[in-house]
Structures are given as structure tokens and as C-alpha cells.
């Protein structure tokens, strides 16, 4: 036989002829696979049902410490966002919910409660938790709407619903515990700050009181009075000098009136000199050193005002943290309660039958292709 004749291209007609040659056995195997897969899908594999529940965060910023912080006068002192439980975004809340639901401790409690280890014949809890995460629970997040869908696959539709109910209960419980713990830590922190600020306020008030005892209750007002008196003295001196000049033109300089006027002017100048050059501590009417006195006074008064403002702000924050610490209201809203499904979710029986039949059909066909064409061609080449 000419070996070159065997090297012709295998056309679609050749594939069809190959099928027609072995169609009986291929169809028998394919029909057998279809029947077996039908029996397997409808009578052996148990139907699995999916129960779902949809939840949304019930935490309101305006009702919690975050809302209080945003309305206080402490915004300029820094970011207090971490102090506020529930002050995170919706996406952060959903991520936290998912982590709680998929946590080892939460799944372990669920596995033990519903006897999943015994039913699936697991020896180790590790394997049961892995099986639960991969085959039983499904979680879908909608970040735009801020919702979380929790789904459970089970052969018993009623138990699927019970597991979803239990998971939502556990989620709410653990989220409340986290919020309470966070609020407790916040309350302790704020209490510590409250005590520190109270002491700082007392120290600032004592310093201001000591300063006022030394320089007066309101040194700024007293210095304004002294400055006004100094200006009035200067004006009076100018006026008296004009009078002296007029007297000097009318009468001789050795007259008593002229001398008396000169002494009056000298006395006024001496008084003005003492006001401008004597220390303020010697007299409240003196101006020397007065800028520093006013500056220090305003610094002390400002410190008292700052500490008082912080203290006034901390008081409602402390009360709010105490409320949050004892808060046991639900932290999640159930938008769609878990249902008892009346229609199976899997297996997809038609897909199983079609895929099984197709695999056997093409597997058998490939077997005869390899046997009749490839092996034969190889033998001829030998």
C-alpha cells in the first residue's frame, strides 16, 4: 500500500463516516450514560435548597458618638472618627458583617448547633468549617444599597431557614458585643481625659486668680484707663503751656502768676513722667511694662476658656459613651426575612444529563478515532 495515500487530510466526510461505522456502540454508550445520569440526578443525588435573608445596618451616625462629635466644637482639635462605633461607611459595615459571619468562631458554633460534623462524617472541626465556607454558606454584598444577602444551602429547606436565622442572630449579637466593647473603651478614655481636663482647668483658674490678685481683676481695662489718663494729662499740659505763654506776654516773668503757672505745668509733667516710666506693679495707673501684663493676662484667660470648652464638650461625649455601652438594641435591620424554599436550587438535573451524555458520546468517538485512524496510520508507517 502506498504510504502517501494515508497522509491525506482528514475531512468532515471522514469524521461522519467514522461515526456511521461505530454509531451503534457510540449510541448505546451515550444512551446508557443518559439513563444512568437521569437516575443519578432524579433518584440518587438529593435536591439542595437555598434559603436567603437580606440585612442592612441599623446603626445611625446621628444617634451615636460620631454624630455628637460632628456637632461639637472640637472639630478643629483633630479626627475623632475612631471613637465612634458605627461611624464607618456602609461598605466598611458590610465588610465587618461578612468577617463576623465567616469567622471561625461563628461557623464553629453553627456547625455544632446543627450537627453538621456528624451528618457529613467529619473527623476534624477544621474540615467541617472549610466545608461550611465552601459549600453551605453564600454571601453577596450590595455596596451601593448597603445590603448583605446571606444564603444557606441544605437538603432540608426548613433547616436552611433555621441556619440563616441563627446566623443573623449571631451577627447581631456579636456586632452588639463589639459595639459595647468599643463604647466601653471610649468611655474609659473619655473619663480619663475628663479628669485630666478638670485638673488642667483648676490649675488654669488658680493661675488666673493669682495673676488678677496681683494686677487687678481686669488689667486690660485698668491699663486703658491709665492710657486715657496719660493722654488727658498731655492735653492738659499743652493747654497750660499755652496759658503760660499768654501770661508771659501780658506780665513779666517774675510775677507770681507766671511762677504759679510754671509750677503747675512742672507738676503735671512729673505726673505724666511717673505714669509712663514707673512700673505697673507700683501703681495701677502706671503704663511701663503694661503690654506684657496684658499679653500674659490674655494668655491665662484664653487657657481657662480652652480648658472649659474642652470640658463642656467632654461631658455630653461621656454621657453618650455610657449610653452606647449599655445599648442592646439590634444593630442590623432585616429587609428580607429568611424563607423556607419550595423549589430546589441544585443540582441542575438537565445539565447533569446533557453533560454526562455528551462526555460519553465524545469520549467513545475519540476512542474509535484513535483506534481506527491514529493507531492504524502509525502501524502503516512502521
Provide the descriptors you would attach to this structure in a database record.
382 residues; 3 domains; 7% strand; 4-stranded antiparallel β-sheet; 12 helices; Bacterial polysaccharide co-polymerase-like; alpha+beta; single chain
What does this 3D model show about the protein?
By secondary structure, this protein is α+β, with helices and mostly antiparallel strands. It has three domains: about 30-45 and about 350-380; about 50-215 and about 315-345, FepE-like (Bacterial polysaccharide co-polymerase-like, 2-Layer Sandwich); about 215-315. The protein has twelve helices and four strands. It has helices at about 10-20, 25-45, 65-70, 90-100, 105-115, 115-120, 125-135, 155-215, 220-250, 255-275, 290-325, 350-380, and strands spanning about 50-55, 135-140, 145-155, 330-335. It has a four-stranded antiparallel sheet with strand order 2-3-1-4. A hairpin with a 4-residue loop joins strand 2 and strand 3 (about 145-155). It is elongated.
SSE arrangement:
Elements lengths: L11 H10 L1 H22 L4 E9 L7 H7 L18 H12 L2 H10 L2 H5 L4 H12 E6 L4 E8 L2 H59 L3 H32 L5 H22 L12 H36 L6 E5 L12 H33 L1
Antiparallel strand pairs: 1-3, 1-4, 2-3
Helix pairs in contact: 2-12, 5-7, 8-11, 9-10
Q: What is the fourth-level CATH superfamily of the largest domain?
A: FepE-like
Shape: elongated
- Overall domain count: 3
CATH level-two architecture of the largest domain:
2-Layer Sandwich
Q: Which strands sit side by side, in order, in the main sheet?
A: 2-3-1-4
> Which parts are unreliable, with pLDDT below 50 for 5 consecutive residues or more?
1-6, 60-64, 73-87
Q: Report the end-to-end length measured between terminal Cα atoms.
A: 13 Å
Helix percentage: 55-70%
Structural class: alpha+beta
